[in-house]
Amino acid sequence: MEQPVYSGTAHGPDGARFAVVGISNMPTDWAQVLKGLTGADLTLPTALLATGVAPTGAVVGAAAPEAGADRPAAAGPPSPSMTPPSVLGLNAYLMYALGKAARRRLQDRLTARGLRLWHLTVLALLSDLGPQMKTVLAARLDMNASDLVRIVNDLVKTGYVECDRDPEDRRRIMVRLTPEGGSALAELGADIASADDEVLAPLDAEERLLLSSLLRRVHTHLEGGTRTAARP
Questions:
Q1: Sequential DSSP letters for the chain
Q2: What pLDDT is recorded for position 76?
Q3: Could you tell me the CA-to-CA distances from 211 to 200, 201, 202, 220, 224 in Å, in that order?
Q4: pLDDT at residue 36, as a whole number
Q5: In the chain, where the domains are located
Q6: Which regions in the chain score pLDDT beneath 50?
Q7: CATH 2.60.40.10 is right for the domain spanning 85-201
Q8: pLDDT tens-digit series, residues 28-58
């Protein structure tokens, strides 16, 4: 259905003239209201002029210059991605936002290799600790056992890990890193460093070391608190 469009002019408290354009969401409602307002001597609230946000169905345009005046450059609406200043004082929000950005950049690089972050985590854990049972892997990563099985199966298909029975206890299935998996993990190190460089670009080498040290201290604190809370 074609939407009626009405336009007109208004002025702010300082006398600056503004264009008003209204597009209705339905055949009636705002179109009829704006039809009555256009051309009227309408004064726009100061807050409305500052934000450029109009009621539903209306859009406030840039100031219309007076006759003979030079046309000013359009300032444009505020960036929708701007973070509210008050939120920047919340460390929890900053860690969330920065972590999200870092995760997105790393995931892009992993996706190009057909992997996900959990695949990288399992490979790294096997490289650090050696062969592990699936149940132990799931517990260390705080993952649901069935989710861990899917991750391991993916890595088996790529040839990065293999599953064998423990020679000391044939009932246990051990997951181990293959030489191909070790090589893939080494190559991923460059991707991880590249993602870090993008996120930490404003920091110099000394500042990055300090940030890493502080983050590890907080992580150790939270990890210790989780273990304490888990005790009966």
A1: -PPPEEEEEEE-TTS-EEEEEEE-SSSSTHHHHHHHHTTS-PBPPHHHHHH---STTEEEEEEEPPTTSPPPPP--PPPTTPPPGGGGG-HHHHHHHHHHHHHHHHHHHHHHTT--HHHHHHHHHHHHH-SEEHHHHHHHHT--HHHHHHHHHHHHHHTSEEEEEETTEEEEEEEEE-HHHHHHHHHHHHHHHHHHHHHTTTS-HHHHHHHHHHHHHHHHHHHHHHHHHH--
A2: 54
A3: 10, 13, 12, 14, 20
A4: 57
A5: 5-64, 85-201
A6: 1-2, 6, 24-28, 30, 42-69, 229-232
A7: no
A8: 454 555 555 555 554 444 444 444 444 444 4
User: Which tokens belong to 66?
Assistant: 């007076």
